[in-house]
Automatic annotation (TrEMBL):
Residues 4-140 form the Flagellin N-terminal domain. Flagellin is the subunit protein which polymerizes to form the filaments of bacterial flagella. It comes from Litoribrevibacter euphylliae. This is Flagellin. Coiled coil: none annotated. It is found in: Secreted; Bacterial flagellum. The keyword Cytoplasm does not apply.
Length: 601
């Protein structure tokens, strides 16, 4: 029995020693590698987190290197521009000198020789300002080219309207509709027509300023390729860029209104939508408080303005200004009712309509949103949207016809600068106030293809030149992260004599012209340098941010991955004592059987 007990003790001592040695191997591995986690067995979750952090750290490292490369590119361009600036300044000085009446023709011709060399120097600097094979300054087009619109007809107003369309009116409208209504075009063509007096599409001044025409059946969206935007030039004079027209009904707001029709025509069940909803939604995108105030005064009371014919069944539309105002109030009423129930507003309705544009009606959309939000309720004076439930278009219009006047009196502000648009503070206090000029953002840089979700067909009589963004030479992208949005575009502009308007400068013939052209060239070079300087500042700021981010990530990864030498050293000391004690116990346990056998022998 004593021998059996001794063997058991020996086995226990051996197991203890094996466990201690395994733990000591882990400690030695951590101390030798400096890492707490050497395999997934050490800490699977920690290894996964650390791997992701390592990817971000390496991403930040490369992004910092990319940003520094971008700064080097900018500095290379700056060096060339500095030389070009010096040459232009010298040309201007020579032109001033040549303009002095004390100089003879011979002396002016001698000065022109130097000017010719200076012009060659400008072209040389522009041509040889390269970074890694990228030509930075040798584009022949002017950095401030006149919007890229070439008019083939003598009509300044039409040209101005075209400039408005390509520098913000269309692009801003599309952005607003996508952001606040969740709708986009579907890649169809959009024909654009500028109608003159006498054209069948023009009804003269004071009539319909613009309209969208489509081919559409009794149900479903517009026929592919049938959407056309007609602009009556009689109502777009004066052009008055950047907004166009006169206060408060600026032309850019008219374009925004019509673009709502265009987008809804191709993305919703346009054929079955009643006119009040189409027009109210179009007005709501840019606001119509000015119209509402005028029509309210004419109607004499809120109830008289709200109670228009379209609220009956079936909904009728007469096209009066008061109906436009009332339909805008109705859409706002529906919007606020949805927001009060916890939704996003009219955007919820639009997105429901767009899910199945061939079949979903406004009845269906209102019913679905009501179901999703647990019911939509009408307005109660002094109590908000706590009234009767409405579940479709008919019950909504009945409720609006009954309670819309209280809503108008208590919820719609008509005396402040905000236009009452969906984007402004009157609808959502968290948003900034949007006045008449800001209802459509302007100006956005010229773009020959301003609509992302349409193919524009421009009016005849104009050539829309490719914008700089369409030219592969025009920009360099600096990648500052892992996604397409994590990059900075550095615009490159021409700075040779052609781009700067200095070709053919002759101070011997017309020194005053040379002075004027030199001043314009200096402005262009200053414009280029300002853009490059802004880009460099952005890159330097990004580098600082990335460096801080990288430092924090490295620190966090270290806390997960790195060995705590103090803890592991203390653990090693403990394990060494345990190992030595285990060896001693094992030795004693192994010696006991021999002692017993000797006694028995």
């Amino acid at each position: 029995m004593q021998i059996i007990n001794t063997n058991i003790a020996a086995l226990r001592a051996q197991r203890h020693l094996n466990s201690v040695e395994t733990e000591m191997s882990t400690v030695f591995r951590r101390l030798s590698s400096g890492l707490r986690i050497n395999s997934a067995a050490d800490d699977a979750a920690g290894l996964a987190i650390s791997t992701r952090m390592e990817a971000r750290i390496r991403e930040s490292t490369v992004a910092i290197r990319n940003a520094n490369d971008g700064i080097s590119l900018i500095q290379t361009a700056e060096g060339g521009l500095e030389t070009i600036t010096d040459n232009i300044q010298r040309i201007r000085v020579l032109a001033l000198q040549a303009a002095n009446g004390t100089n003879s023709d011979f002396e002016r011709e001698a000065m022109q020789i130097e000017v010719d060399y200076l012009l060659e120097g400008i072209n040389f600097a522009a041509k040889h300002s390269r970074y890694n094979g990228i030509n930075l300054l040798n584009d022949s087009s002017s950095p401030l080219e006149d919007n890229g619109i070439v008019s083939l007809q003598d009509d300044e107003t039409k040209t101005a309207v075209m400039i408005g369309l390509t520098t913000g009116w269309l692009e801003s409208s599309e952005n607003l509709i996508e952001e606040f209504y969740g709708l986009t075009g579907d890649g169809q063509t959009l024909g654009i027509f500028l109608a003159d007096t006498g054209d069948p599409e023009s009804d003269g001044p004071g009539g319909t300023a613009a309209y969208v025409q489509t081919l559409v059946g009794a149900s479903g969206p517009a026929v592919n390729g049938s959407v056309e935007l007609y602009i009556d030039m009689e109502d777009f004079r004066p052009a008055n860029l950047p907004n166009g027209g006169t206060e408060p009904f600026y032309n850019d707001r008219i374009i925004a209104h019509e673009m709502v029709h265009a987008v809804m025509a191709v993305s919703t069940n346009w054929g079955e939508l009643n006119t009040w909803f189409k027009e109210g939604a179009a007005e709501f995108i840019h606001g119509a408080d000015e119209r509402i105030a005028i029509d309210l005064a004419a109607a004499g009371s809120s109830s008289a303005l709200v109670s228009q014919g379209f609220t009956g069944a079936p909904a009728a539309w007469g096209g009066t200004s008061a109906e436009y105002s009332s339909s805008t109030i109705a859409v706002r009423y529906l919007h606020d009712a949805i927001v009060a129930a916890g939704g996003e507003g009219i955007k919820d309705i639009m997105e429901e309509l767009a899910l199945d544009p061939n079949n979903t009606t406004l009845d269906d959309a209102i019913a679905q949103v009501s179901t999703d939000l647990g019911g939509l309720r009408g307005y109660v004076s002094g109590a908000g949207f706590t009234g009767t439930l409405f579940t479709d278009e008919a019950t909504f219009l009945t409720d609006y016809d009954t309670n819309g006047d209280d809503f108008l009196d208590e919820q719609i502000q008509l005396v402040d600068p905000d236009t009452g648009s969906i984007q402004g503070s009157n609808v959502n206090p968290a948003n900034p106030s949007i006045n008449q000029e800001d209802a459509v953002e302007d100006p956005i840089d010229y773009n020959s293809d301003p609509l992302e979700h349409w193919q524009e067909i421009w009016p005849s009589g104009f050539t829309v030149k490719a914008s700089r963004n369409d030219n592969s030479f025009s920009s360099v992208y600096i990648q500052l992260g892992a996604t397409a949005s994590d990059r900075l575009e550095i615009n490159l502009y021409g700075a040779n004599t052609s781009a700067l308007g200095l070709d053919g400068v002759d101070i011997s013939e017309d020194p005053l012209d040379a002075i004027e052209r030199s001043d314009e060239a200096l402005e262009l070079v200053s414009f280029i340098r300002a853009n490059l300087g802004a880009a460099q500042n952005r890159l330097e700021s990004t580098i600082n941010n990335l460096a801080i981010q990288k430092e924090n990530l490295v620190s966090a990864q270290s806390r997960i991955m790195d060995t705590d030498y103090a803890a592991e050293t203390a653990r090693l000391a403990r394990l060494t004592v345990l190992q030595q004690a285990g060896f001693s116990v094992l030795a004693q346990a192994n010696s006991r059987p021999q002692q017993v056998l000797q006694l028995l022998g």
